[in-house]
TrEMBL record:
Residues 5-77 form the RRM domain. It comes from Nadsonia fulvescens var. elongata DSM 6958. One of its GO terms (molecular function) is RNA binding. Keywords: RNA-binding. InterPro entries: Nucleotide-bd_a/b_plait_sf, RBD_domain_sf, RRM_dom. This is RRM domain-containing protein. Residues 114-129 have a biased composition (Polar residues). The keyword RNA-binding applies. Residues 106-129 are annotated as: Disordered. Pfam families: RRM_1 (PF00076).
Length: 129
């Protein structure tokens, strides 16, 4: 299973048009494909770049559009018996369980320890003078 630059948007108002949804997500980057199923309340959007898709997820999940709160998730391609189909990727992983968050927290902790060590060295030097 390969992560794609495709997102799945659910809880779309039935009266939404393709142009409205396109314009709503265009600020995040070039859109290659948009499949709207407004009567079923969802759309699949393919961005040119995976980073654009991630930005759309981060900024639009929980956003209000036509008096409804959108759910925006990443999608992955799953090769099944009937050919390929898009499935919603599980994005319910806690923030602190995600590798990028852990790396950032570790970096900040090391930086704080380094800064605290420098302050202690400076205080010791000043006290001995």
């Amino acid at each position: 299973m390969e992560i794609q630059s495709k997102i799945h948007v659910s809880n779309i108002e039935a009266s939404a048009t393709r142009d409205l949804v396109h314009d709503l997500f265009l600020p995040f980057g070039p859109i290659l494909d948009l499949s709207l199923h407004a009567n079923r309340g969802y759309a699949d959007i393919q961005f040119e770049d995976i980073d654009d898709a991630q930005a759309a997820i981060e900024n639009m999940d929980g956003a209000e559009f036509q008096a409804k709160v959108l759910r925006v998730r990443g999608a992955r391609r799953d090769e099944g018996r009937n050919g390929s189909k898009t499935v919603i990727m599980d994005s319910r992983k806690a923030l602190w369980e995600q590798e990028q968050f852990l790396e950032q927290e570790q970096f900040l902790e090391q930086e704080q320890q380094s800064t605290a060590g420098d302050s202690l060295d400076q205080a010791t030097t000043e006290a001995s003078l």
